[in-house]
Amino acid sequence: MITSQHLPPPHQLRKLMQSLAALDAVYSPEWQYRYYSFDTNWAADEEMGSIRNGSGDDVFALFTSEGCFLKGCSHEYLDDKITPDAFYTGVPEVFQAGLKEPAFSPNRVSFCNWTGVKDSEWKAAIDTATLDPKIFFLLEGLDGDPNTYHAFTSDYYEINTDLEHISAIYRHKPMTIARAKSMNAEIVYEELIESLKQIGYPIEVESSLNDSEVTGKPRGLFSRLFGKD
């Protein structure tokens, strides 16, 4: 089982979470039902990736030019003997925004890690090895294997998906109308484009679309929902 101590470095994790968010945007067009999301416009010099299962469990990853801050909550495995402050001890100043963000529910925490762009490993105030490994179940999809997401769609969304398309999205192949329709025949491509722009996922400019519609960068959906500037 993957744990927060063994995640890839920030630039790889960011790309992976963008891929997962793009896939969910195709297979689950309604944002509130998505498991994976990503917002490149979270705040100035901040991007945010999230994993939410709708049952009170979540992971938030805050990406900045300095690295990444990651915080997770598995509500069935909250340890009353460990206070939230204990998880946040030693978090560098550059990641303090993650501790103060109401959308991240900082008082509900099962694990917390951070790493700088020049660091060789993920750091934590509490040794990951001392925590119940079950708390990391939301990180299972971050192993970088397209087969994992392929199995996930069958289990979580109860749909059949094409591994070849999933693998292409993992490689950040630009989205096209043809690929999107092949993945989900009912997708509204113009709405998908808006989601992909928020995610920061590459889109192939189609002759039937105005370039500005594809390359524009609107304020992120997460930012609008949580009232961030």
Low-confidence stretches: 211-219
The class by helix and strand makeup works out as: alpha+beta
Largest sheet: 5 strands, antiparallel
How many helices does DSSP assign?
9
Q: What is the oligomer described by this structure?
A: single chain
Cα shape: globular
How much helical structure, as a percent, in the residues?
Answer: 25-40%
Strand content: 15-25%
Arithmetic mean pLDDT: 91
Taking all Cα atoms into account, the compactness measure Rg is: 18 Å
What's the total number of strands?
5
What is the N-to-C order of secondary-structure elements (H for helix, E for strand)?
Answer: HEEEEHHEHHHHHH
Q: Trace the largest sheet across and list its strands.
A: 1-2-3-4-5
Question: Please, how many domains?
Answer: 1
Distance between the termini: 37 Å
Tell me about this structure:
Helices cover about 35% and strands about 15% of the residues. The protein is built from 9 helices and 5 strands; from the N terminus they run αββββααβαααααα. The chain has helices spanning about 10-25, 85-90, 95-100, 145-155, 165-170, 175-185, 190-200, 210-215, 220-225; strands at about 35-45, 45-50, 60-65, 65-75, 110-115. The chain has a 5-stranded antiparallel beta sheet with strand order 1-2-3-4-5. Strand 1 and strand 2 (about 45-50) form a beta hairpin. It is globular and about 50 Å long. The chain starts with 9 loop residues before the first helix and ends with a helix.
